[in-house]
Amino acid sequence: GQKGDPVSLGQGQPVNAQGKKPKIAISIPAADHGWTAGIGWWAEQATKLHPECDWVIETAQNSGEQINDLETLASQGIDGIVILATESAPVTPAAKELKEKGIFIVNVDRGFTEDIADIFLEGDNSAFGRKSAEYIVQKTGGKGKVLILRGIPSTVDTDRYEAAMAVFKGTPGIQVLDAPAGEWNREKALNVTQAMLAKHKQIDVIWAADDDMALGAETAIKEAGRENQIWMIGGGGMKDVVKRVMDGDKMFPADITYPPSMIATGIHLAASSLRDGKLAEIKKFMPKRIKMDVELITPANAKDYYFPDSIY
Amino acid sequence: MLIAFIVLMIGYAIWRPDIVLNPEFLPRLVNQNAAVGIVAIFMTLVIIGGGIDLSVGSMMGLTASLGLLALNKLIGDGTSQSVATLAAVVVSVAVGAFLGAVNGIAITWGKIAPFIVTLAGMAAYRSIATVLAAGGEIRSSSSEVFAELGRGGLTVPFLVLERDRALIITWPVIVFFLSALVAGFLLNWTRYGRHLIAVGANEKAAIYSAINTSKVKVYSYVLMGLFAGAAAIGLAGRMNSVSTSQLGLYYELDAIAAVVIGGTSMSGGRGRIWTTVIGVLLLGLITNMLVTSGLSVYWQGAVKGVIILLAVLIQRGHSD
Amino acid sequence: MLIAFIVLMIGYAIWRPDIVLNPEFLPRLVNQNAAVGIVAIFMTLVIIGGGIDLSVGSMMGLTASLGLLALNKLIGDGTSQSVATLAAVVVSVAVGAFLGAVNGIAITWGKIAPFIVTLAGMAAYRSIATVLAAGGEIRSSSSEVFAELGRGGLTVPFLVLERDRALIITWPVIVFFLSALVAGFLLNWTRYGRHLIAVGANEKAAIYSAINTSKVKVYSYVLMGLFAGAAAIGLAGRMNSVSTSQLGLYYELDAIAAVVIGGTSMSGGRGRIWTTVIGVLLLGLITNMLVTSGLSVYWQGAVKGVIILLAVLIQRGHSD
Amino acid sequence: MLEVKGLVKEFPSVRALDGVDLDLRAGEVHGVVGENGAGKSTLMKILAGIYQADAGEVLLEGKAVRFRNTGEAIASGVAMIHQELNLVDELSVAENIFLGREPRKGPALDRQKMSVDAQAFLNEVHSPFGPDVKVGSLSVAGKQLVEIAKALSYEARILIMDEPTAVLSDRETSALFDLIARLKKRNVSILYISHLLREMMIVCDRVTVLRDGRLITTLAVEDTSPALLANLMVGRELEDYYPAKPPFPSGSPALSVKGIAVPRHVHELSFDLLPGEIVGLAGLVGSGRTEAAEAIVGLRAKSAGTVERDGMPIKIRTARDAMRHGIAYVSEDRKAYGLIMQMSTAQNVTLANLKAYANPVVNGAKERAAIKGWIDDLGVKAGNPNAQILFLSGGNQQKVSVAKWLDTKPKVLILDEPTRGVDVGAKREIYNLIAKLAAEGLACLVISSEMQELIGLCHRVLVVREGRLMGELAGDDMTEQNIMALAAAVQQEAA
Ligand SMILES: Nc1ncnc2c1ncn2[C@@H]1O[C@H](COP(=O)(O)OP(=O)(O)OP(=O)(O)O)[C@@H](O)[C@H]1O
Ligand SMILES: Nc1ncnc2c1ncn2[C@@H]1O[C@H](COP(=O)(O)OP(=O)(O)OP(=O)(O)O)[C@@H](O)[C@H]1O
Ligand SMILES: [Mg+2]
Ligand SMILES: [Mg+2]
Q: Of all helices (H) and strands (E), which one includes residue A179?
């Protein structure tokens, strides 16, 4: 954000004996739905915590734009970069070129197809799909009619969907009714769910590929007056949903963590690695790969995941 | 497109009577497409006038955001929900009309191509909306009254649906029909309509005919913005929140598509309102069919493309 | 737009000499915008001919996917990477030309509005691409040769950059310039160009002059598809993979924007190639400035909108 | 050479041709006359392959032919000069002339050759402009010359000319006649359409008369006269052509133009118009008459000069200002500026004066009444007034563009080539109307390239050359020679 403006914060003013104030770029997907907006917000928050570095945040509509951003950011001389890839494979070559320029790379959530990141904070979309599906199986006692709400065709969506389907296929009692796309969009999810409610007289559970769509579905269900027959599980740890879980809302018995705050973790790691010019030493103990656990949020632990002032 | 629409409808009804013959089906279809319908109707006027408005989707994001901020501010200050809701509507509509005027003036007085002006607007208005909430959501603090903007409406008497609910013609649907009436009336029964057609068909000749072409154009953009503001606040009510990055996203494209499929020519000077309405419902129907078809989401685009072409061909087969 | 571009460039150079005066700056800027540039150039021809192609972005996703599948298949069968890469290029270009022909024939022979035909194509081609990769991405199994399509090119002699690398004019850039030359030559120096202008400006006059208007139109779409296929495989090389849901996404819009900002009228019959090239670079430059500005991403859209309008005004100030 | 037997053509609204016969001899100039909407252009368009006949046959040198498009017609040596200009404004004159047949060097255009060859054809029509100017920058007259040159360039054996002189002034016209003579020597057959019956006497060998899509007769010119042709066209006796001129008016000017100027076109032009006065504005094509008129009514920026209404100086920046002050201007270019082709005939009639019928809501009854009134007064042949005006015959379109402005009930009326392409009968109707309105106090300025018309209609004639007022003629001094002398700057040995 504004912090990133290297002119206003005279770039390269020494902060300590070790040398210059490090400049770190952040490349993330554009805020085109709730979760990505959350990423942007957490990135802003995290950079504010680290004035000892210069920050530049850039968002990209698609992978083509993102690799352009990476090049352009690199061209203005940066020491490190935190990347949340729009898509893994397409961004990999560009990231590799940054690596070759000697730029410190923290890769968050979606892993590159080659081992080039100095630190990889691994998100696990398959676990997202698997755990939420397993919860459904467990809560329904392995039998029930499930409606799936997909996002937009992409690796993220495919990973979550296929992991979930694997679980459901393994459970004879579970019948997957349909798997239409809610396009990560609350309004679209609402429309799609309305159509589904008209098509299927009985739906027991809705598995949504993220919380935004789950909330859209909720509106549809309430308008159809079927709130007592259907419950849902989405994912992402959106505060509205976590709140509902916390309050024991029947429609939202649980949620899956996939917090956009993960970008903040990445930013913190980048800052702490680069700020004192002790990168070499830090690398000695810093793990190259950190897998973020995907957890089940239940009324019991919901308060730990509730961030009322987050935008997501 | 009426024939195409009817053909598709009948085919759908035969295939899935359980869905189509449900009394809720049509009202829901219309309700789901009311917002884009409103936009498409006034986009038709803009296009007939020889213009185009790419900014309307972003504009909706911005007007709804400001409307919601006003709502929350007022409720925060202890105003009643109803008054605050009314204020939200007024703000959204007023801002829409204002931004429409900005577009129109930049085009006529600034003499910049509509495509460029509204392309800039598309980028700018969305951006300002995201600034208001860091790209995130603005949540309404009036869960009862404000949400009624999307859900509420006029109840159809004596008709009771399953789980004894009443059938409601929602406000967005009512505004949708009002828009069609207003636009149709303007276009076919007023001096303004004639002038708009003249300007779109042959601006030079319109000037020679002592028509104030700038005024005619500006009005078309103002109307566009004004009703887009109304559509936007309705959507916000439906979600009882505004996602600054999503509300209205790509509505301009959906609207233009509906207008063109409705048979209005992009080159201006010719066009009808009711065919646009059918165009909107046709696209909505296609989407609905695809969703309920259970067809893999990967294939849906391909089928959609084919059906659109078929619809146009069916139509031609009958219209001449 | 040349003046506007130069003004902006100078302003940028004064503000950030460290970035702009770097010998890599311009080549990189061109390289980053080569693909959309190629599309914009042939979009210019299509628009001059009175048409429009909304399908090109999706088309790129499809041609690149098929190209990559061919590559992987061949390498799987033990073909050499170079041959396989060549095959991938041929497939992508050929499929592009074919899909272009499909568009053109549906428009001329099927007598359906270009907007509708290519809108359907936009939905269909993207969908087929996602089907090919089950909604995911296709990774190239040739990390050396194929990737060179995006990175490799002709080396500028005697010029050594920091970390003693050579300056490379990449293949996409070369194709970009070739496209400009080809399209410019076609438009200004051949019969085809005259006929294209005539068809776009006054189709009746063209018909009275015994011009085969259908042929003229179809060719413009074939050229569009053919070069889009080339641009697409270049992008795929640059990413050494294809994200079926993203490759080429919104390229049609960026291209049309560049064409219009370049001063070509959407109504057909008038337009220039080189101004489109400048339009592309101008938009690329603006994006580049915004990225390096460190300005909050939320504000960038607003600033972009304003700069676009300013650029057009600066231009007008000088061009007449 | 060419023979037409029982040709029939139906259009949704009318039967344009109803069994027309016609035979064209080699090297003959064959005139075709008829009222507006008689079917002349339709007939020609069938011969040129633009329309297909519903019945009947066309024999070219004895063989039956049926052209499916212009290409086939041209291939068989039939070329046409269209009544409505069909040129590409965005292309140069040369490019328009050779459109579809551009000379090439290898894959590239041979611009050089194209210009040179084009120049040759332009010389044939005495064009003032070169082959490399954009057609869009030409006046209607200039465009017409390009149309002629283009038709010539096909080097056809049969050349169809549909009202080629309608937009030309006498000078270009006589140049065209010389050209026709040369073509005859080359044994080219010409079908010649015009509403200027005197021309028929000069250029034609035989004349065919059509009425309502039917053949009336074909006569050798020797056996006919303008008056006879006129009567045959209309089907009744036409009494004298020009109405009695209203009494010469007196009083203070309704409009005074004081030294207006338009860069490149008009220089220091001043004149007065009295109420009830009909003043002619004569000059060669390109003399800037249109520019002057457009400047007066605010359609062109004027670099100097003022305009006064009833002695009051007024500011006119747009056509709206002019209309507010009761000044109306009928453009010479009905296709580009006069009418809106996508609109219906009815809507075009009321477009300028819509306030009177739609304020803001359209009063259908009132509007229909007004429209019917004009269609009757001017005898507009419009099968269905709610059909696109595009489908009206040229002359009928012209009548509508006049009606459109008369409907605003102006106090000052400027008519630019008001009877361009209008048939004799309708011309009389327009003349009578002008005379009647003048008698009621309308001040009228008539721009025309048809000097007879100015002499017959006007109280006095102003003559301009290259945007300068060269003189004023009244009473018996109003002769073609005198006007020509002033307009073309030749030594006045005549006077
Ligand atoms: N394309 C068309 N569609 C419908 N009606 C038409 C069309 N073309 C001509 N007409 C009608 O056919 C009749 C003959 O038209 P045409 O143009 O041949 O008259 P014309 O003799 O050339 O008249 P003018 O002297 O005014 O040019 C007219 O009534 C006209 O309205
Ligand atoms: N729209 C235009 N753009 C540029 N030049 C024009 C235009 N119209 C006319 N001209 C030029 O201005 C000059 C005056 O043309 P114009 O025909 O209007 O004069 P005029 O005396 O009115 O002749 P006419 O007998 O056609 O009315 C001509 O040289 C013509 O080429
Ligand atoms: Mg005619
Ligand atoms: Mg003139």
A: none
Enumerate the H helices of D245-363 as residue ranges: 289-296, 319-324, 345-350
User: What's the average model confidence in pLDDT over B126-133?
Assistant: 90
ipTM of the complex: 0.88
Is C130 in Cβ contact with A158 (below 8 Å)? no
Long-range residue pairs from B202-205, CB within 8 A, at least 24 positions apart, any chain: B202/B269, B202/D336, B202/D340, B202/D341, B202/D342, B203/B50, B204/D336, B204/D337, B205/D336, B205/D337, B205/D338, B205/D339, B205/D340
Q: pLDDT tens-digit profile of D10-63? A: 988 788 999 999 999 999 999 999 988 899 999 999 999 999 999 999 999 889
Q: Nearest chain B Cα to D332, which residue?
A: B208
Mean pLDDT value of segment C180-192: 95
- The three-class DSSP label of residue B102 is helix
As a whole number of angstroms, the distance between CA D489 and CA D495 comes to 13
Is the N-terminal amide bond of D131 cis, ω within 30° of 0? Answer: no
Q: Does C310 touch chain B (CB under 8 A)?
A: no
Mean predicted lDDT score pLDDT of chain C:
90
Pseudo-torsion of CA B95, B99, B105, B108, nearest 10°?
A: -130
Of all protein residues, the one whose alpha carbon is nearest to atom 13 of ligand 2 is D286
Nearest CA in chain D to C269: D90
| Ligand 2 atom 7: residue of nearest CA | D139
Write the burial class of residue D308 (CB in 10 Å: 0-12 exposed, 13-18 middle, 19+ buried): middle
Query: For D102-115, what is each residue's pLDDT tens digit?
Result: 998 888 889 999 99
Task: Establish whether residue D144 lines the binding site of ligand 1, counting it when its CB lies within 6 angstroms of any ligand atom.
Answer: no
- Supply the pTM of this predicted model: 0.90
Supply angle C-alpha C104, C107, C112, rounded to 5.
160
Residue A5 pLDDT > 70? no
pLDDT at B178: 95
D47 Cβ inside 6 Å of ligand 2: no
Q: What is the DSSP string of D212-265?
A: TTEEEEEEEGGG--HHHHHHHHHTS----SSPPPPPPP-SS-SEEEEEEEETTT
Preferred mutation among A53, A62, A114, A157 to probe C, highest tally of C CBs within 10 A? A62
How far, in Å, is the centroid of ligand 1 from the Cα of D41?
Answer: 7
Return the pLDDT at C319. Answer: 54
**Contact indicator for D39, D8 with CB cutoff of 8 Å:** no
For ligand 2, is residue D286 a contact (CB within 6 Å)? yes
Nearest bound ligand to the CA of residue D32: 1
Count CB pairs under 8 A between chains B and C. 122
Tell me, what's the pLDDT at C163?
Answer: 67
**C239 near A CB under 8 A:** yes
Between residues D245 and A203, which one has the greater pLDDT?
A: A203
